Amino acid sequence: MVVDFTKKKELLTESWLRQFGAWNKILLKQMYGDNVNMMAPLTSVADIANFLKEEEIDNQLSFVVRGEQKDVKAYANALFSEKNYLDRYLQHGEDHPQTHKAREVLRQAVSEFESQTGITWPFADED
Predict the structure, then answer these.
(1) How is the chain split into domains, by residue range?
(2) CB-count burial class (<10 Å; 0-12, 13-18, 19+) for 39
(3) How far apart are CA 97 and CA 119, in angstroms?
(4) 77 and 113 in contact (C-beta within 8 Å)?
(5) pTM to 2 decimals?
(6) What average pLDDT does the segment 24-45 reach?
(7) Which residues pair with 4 in a beta bridge?
(8) Residue 123, SS3?
(9) pLDDT of residue 95
(10) Do 64 and 2 touch, CB atoms closer than 8 A?
(11) How many other C-beta atoms are found inside a 10 Å radius of the C-beta of residue 100?
C-alpha cells in the first residue's frame, strides 16, 4: 500500500477514497491485532490488493506514506486519534469524560488532516 500525498489531485476520485477508507480500516485492525472483530464490513478488500498493489508478507502489511511532512504528520495524527477514540469508547463507553475528550481530539485531528490535504477523512462520527 502506498499513500502518496504528493499526488493529491489524483487521489480525489471516488474509487480512491473508497479504497483509502478500506485501507484505513485494515490498518486500524492491524493496530488492534488479530483478535478484534470488525463491526463494519471491509468492502472491496480484494480490490485493495489490485488497486493499490498492497503486499502482504508473513502476515504483515507493507505500506508507505509519502508526501510533505505536514501531510504525513496530519495523516498519522488523525489515524492515531481515531484509534485513541475507539480505545476510550470501548473502555469507558460513549458518555465518559475521557471518551468526550478523545472525541474532541479526533475532531481536531480530522479537521487538520482535511484542511491540510484536501482529502475527506474516511470515517464519520455520528452525533
Answers:
(1) 2-117
(2) exposed
(3) 29
(4) yes
(5) 0.67
(6) 61
(7) 66
(8) coil
(9) 93
(10) yes
(11) 14
